[in-house]
Amino acid sequence: MTAERLSYAVAHGLALPSDGRIAWIGAPGDSDIGPLDPARLEIVQGFAPDAAAWQVRGLTVVPAPAGPYAAVIVTLPRARDRAEAWLAQAEAAAPGGLIVLDGAKTDGAEALAKALKGRVAIEGQVSKAHGKCLWFRSGDAMADWARPAMAPNADGDSVAPGVFSADGPDPASVALAEALPPLKGVVADLGAGWGWLARAVLARSPGIDRLHLVEADMPALDCARANVTDPRARFHWDDATAWKAPEALDAVVMNPPFHVGRKGDPRLGQAFIAAAARMLATRGQLWMVANRHLPYETALAQHFGEVAEVAGTSKFKILHAARPIRAGRHTGTRTG
Predict the structure, then answer these.
(1) Minimal CA–CA distance to 281: which of 243, 253, 252?
(2) Which candidate, 243, 189, 194, places its Cα nearest to that of 217?
(3) pLDDT under 70 in the chain at which residues?
(4) At what angle do helices 218-227 and 196-204 cross, to 10 degrees?
(5) What domains can be seen in the chain, in order of their start residue?
(6) Which of 33, 98, 123, 295 has the fewest CB atoms within 10 Å around its CB?
C-alpha cells in the first residue's frame, strides 16, 4: 500500500477506528504508515526483508494475525490464493471490524474487487497511483476462502497458498539437481522455497554434513520443514542476500528468484551470486540454475575466479563457479 493511496482514501470517506489495534497484513517494508498510529499498529509480515525493515523502525511485527483487531488492512499479494487466504484471516481476526483492501491493479486488485462485491457491502473505494483501495465491514462472507497453512499437492509435498511452484518442483530446480555431482561438507541452498531442491541434494549426497536452507518467505520455509526431514537440514528464515552463514560453506546451490513484484529484475539474482561468494570457503563452489536469457555471467566473473556453464537446455543453463574472490583481492578470471 502506498501512504499516498491510504491518505487519499481517508480524505474520501475511509474512517479508521479511533481506538483499538489495527493490523496490516503484507505491509511492504518500504511503506510509510501515513495516517496510522504506530502505537496501535501491528505489522503481519512473513517476508523476512520486509519484517526486518519494520522492526528496525520500531514497529511490532508478528507472523500471523492475532486479533481481535478494530481494523485490518490487507495489501494484496501477487498470488490470488494467498490474497483470498489473507482476507479470510482478516475477517476472522476483526469480528465486526473494518477491513481495508489495497493493491496494485497489476496484482489483480480489480478482479478481487469484483469478487468481493458479490460477497460484502463495499462502504467505499478509491483508485489512485495505479491501484485500488476499498473497505467494508467484517462478517463471515469469506469463510470459504480460508485455507490451511499447508496442504499436500499432487505429489504429496506440503505447500502453502502463494508459494512458488506449489503444483510441483520447478523444472529449473529439477535440471540443477540432475546436473549436480555428489556434494560434501557444509552446503547452503539459498532461496530454498518449500524444500524440493534441498531434499534432492541431500538424497544424492551422503557426504553432506549439514545443509542450510535459507528462505525469506515464512510459509515456504514452514513447508520446507515438513518436506525435508533429513537430520542434516538446518532452516533459516532470512534474506538470502544478507544471511550470515554460521560457518564457512563448501558449496552453495541455488535457483534464485528473478522477479521483484511482477517485474523481472536480474539484480536480485546478481545479489544472490555476491552473497554466495561471501559465504563460501576459499575452495568453495557455487552451483546455480538460471533461465537462459538472464545475464549472470558478468556477475559470476566479478565474484569468482572460475566460471563455466556445465549443462543446460534451450530454457535453462547450469552454471558452476569456483575460487570465490574476496573483497580487496584480485584474481584472474577464467570462463569456459
Answers:
(1) 252
(2) 194
(3) 1-2, 259-264, 327-336
(4) 30
(5) 3-145 (3.40.50.150), 152-335 (3.40.50.150)
(6) 295
- What pLDDT is recorded for position 257? 86
Residue 213, φ and ψ in degrees, nearest 5: -95, 120
Residue 86 per-residue DSSP state: H
Contacts of 98 (CB under 8 A, 6+ apart): 15, 16, 17, 70, 71, 72, 135, 136, 137, 138
- List pLDDT tens digits, range 109-145: 899 999 999 899 999 999 988 899 999 999 989 999 9
C-alpha span between 43 and 38 (Å, rounded):
10
Q: Where are the beta strands (DSSP E) in 245-303?
A: 249-254, 259-260, 263-264, 280-291
Asked if residue 100 lies in contact with residue 133, where contact means CB atoms within 8 angstroms, the answer is: yes
DSSP state of 227: H
DSSP 294: S
| 8 Å CB contact between 2 and 129 | yes
Contact 271, 244 (CB under 8 A): no
pTM, entire model: 0.92
Query: What totals of helices (H) and strands (E) does the chain contain, helices first?
Result: 9, 19
Q: How far apart are CA 225 and CA 213, in angstroms?
A: 9
For residue 67, give the DSSP letter. S
CB-CB contact of 251 with 209 (8 Å): no
Cell of 4: 499516498
